Amino acid sequence: MSLAASELGFGAEAEMRDRTQMLFVALLARQGAHRFILKGGMAMRALYGSTRLTKDVDFDGDGSLSQQSMQAQMPKALLQAARQAGLNGIDVQQTKAGDRSSRWRIIGRTAEEVATTWEVEVSRRGIPPANFIETRPFETPIAYRIPNFNVRVYGPAAMAGGKVNALLSLNRSVPRDVYDLHELIRNKADPAPLWINRVPREFLERKRPEVMSKIDRIGFSLANSELLPYIAMCAQALTKLAGTKSDWMWRSTSIAGLAMRSSTPNPRRNCIVMPTTKSILLGADAPRVLTVPMVAAVLANRRKLPARNTLFRWIREQTKSGALRPVTRGLYINQLARPLPTAADAAGFVRSGAIVSLQTVLGEAGVTNNYSDIVTCVVPHNKDHKPSVRPVKAERIEFRFHAMPARFLDEHAGELEDRMDLEFKYSRATPEKALLDWIYLGASARTKIAGPPFDIDAGRLKKARLQRLAKAMSLQSQLKTYLESKRKYEEDPEVEASASLNEYHDDGP
To answer: How far apart are CA 51 and CA 232, in angstroms?
Structure first.
């Protein structure tokens, strides 16, 4: 059975999207849409109860499926699903109408003004033989109140084959392909029966170096922006705890001649398996932030999670003793971990994809002289994902979030070592990246944040790194304008500047 998005630690928008998507798939299935074959993330939910949510719903269509038939069926099913989910202001648009694929987008809001948007795509590029297609029962989350239904879906062999095909394509570099392939391999999926008469082994051996090079480029930063917003909180914790120094993938596996290099332990499906209560809280290797599912995994035996009362009694005891520090509901800082965690460690749990930056980074680096207890973060946004930027306040903790285009936060914005401070076990920008983030946001008409002050200690910044990042982010002119304004500020006889522009120097890459 699948778990509801809220049971996996997601917010209201993710749950509404997931529920509406399931309603839509159920409607198509019950309308006898036997010419549609479910694939992608929603198929992983149907096959294995995957805890990765999907931003889109994908189908393959057989050769008898016409554009006219889809244009008549899809908008009606989307509109009906949205209404059943309780959405208002519903807008369904066809965004692509090609010979080989068609796409529709749905937009709506709940009564609580929670916005949701996602797309459905139907491809007609051919399908594998019928013996690789199955009809599976889709056991929906109890909380969604959607009756279970049967759906046509690719079997494990075809799903795994599709994911390896994606890795073989040099034009596609998507972290969720590696994530899903790991899940498929863990469930004994093998694409060999599908490929044995289609793909020569020599071809796979020849492609292996190219594929491995591409996988190496899927670093933690890319996964942090494209994958983490869609996976369960306990899986996010696993990814973060496994190491943020670009090395986020899973332990070695081999399938169809392709060796997948990795380092993250092999988790159980819905939780992180941790052996004892003592081992989770104490020492340098202990998790610095804990969620309720993580705590439940600690107290679980091999087959059974602890009773709800037992779980929350343990949490109350550890909170009372000072071992756990509450951040938000269901989220705690482990005060026994070493070095001692700070509120910034929890930012990525409070808002998926958050990167600590701006005033927090510059203040703690001594670049600005107005250190604040508020944790300031940037979060990626794109056309498919609009994160909430509402501040989050807890006991003696406040988090503030500012949205930036994903291209300014992923590998397009520069090398990982230039963008991210790899000395920390959570996503944190370097001081140079934090300054450029601030310059961009200060100049953007979409934010209310003012630009960075001119009395910064630029001598603490690495000039070469700053210039590399500015070039990668296409912010060279904005940086030049800021530095020129800073120079004029410091030359103003009425200003008692604390540093001069001449102190700004290159102290290494």
So the answer is: 6
